[in-house]
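Per reviewer request, we include the raw input and output of the structure prediction for the construct analysed in the revised manuscript.
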Amino acid sequence: MEQGEIDSASVTPWSVQIGPALVSQHFVVTGRPPTRRELILILDTVMRPRAVEPTADR
């Protein structure tokens, strides 16, 4: 995500709903909107980067 690229296969009806739901949940739980860093973490959790380095586990 840091390179600004998102794998288009990760954009689904569910992922489009999950991001805003996590932002809303954060606000309900903490009483404040997420910071820029928290928004990036939410986005990185919901959307997969275009290029993922292979690991020995895969």
